[in-house]
Amino acid sequence: VIGLARRSEKVEEIAKNLGDTSGKIYARKCDVSDIKSVKETFVWIEQQFGAINILINNAAILSKGKILDEGDEMTNTIDSVINTNFTGLVHLTREAVRLMKKTEDFGMIINVNSVLGHFIPFSQARLNVYAPTKFALTAVSEVLRQELIAQGNLKIRVSNLSPGSVETDIVIVGGLGTDKKEFFENVPHLKPENVSHSVLFLLKTPTNVNITQLT
What we know:
Number of strands: 6
Low-confidence stretches: none
Structural class: alpha/beta
Order of helices and strands: EHEHEHEHEHHHE
Radius of gyration: 18 Å
Distance between the termini: 25 Å
Helix content: 40-55%
Shape: globular
Strand content: 5-15%
Oligomer: single chain
């Protein structure tokens, strides 16, 4: 497994805690919002491993504030959220599919989306472009699936996985709270392992089955 993250030390920490689990994790520093970083990373992947079979797009950020807030700070926030949650995912997927095709084997793309990619409660208006990027991810997942079919490629499947609130650091980094435990005491939520179990469920489906949306 190749784990890409801006904080690659977090991936290395996971690798150390696996114990006797079979397989190996390779940690690699990559900023998905930076196309140069994405391209350099996939040059390295191709040189080291030749090709890949599975892509899990899980990188996302959010930041408190409103689209109509004035000033450069909100301008930078909007750009950062769009480039991480959507633009970066698109370019990363293009690079990954190129390597998947090299294998002439079965492949799978799983985009970790959000329930906010389908419906926006009024209370979520404080998250500016977070939900719009997730709506865009819902659309791009289906466009990718249709493009692959149009190319005659029936081996690479695309699934859109939309969890609700998940207990991760995103709320702290995004300025929604100062203490993760305290924040999630008042919010119905999933655990990260619930999401990974859903990913494993999708990966275990027969190759002639494509679950396009799992909420």
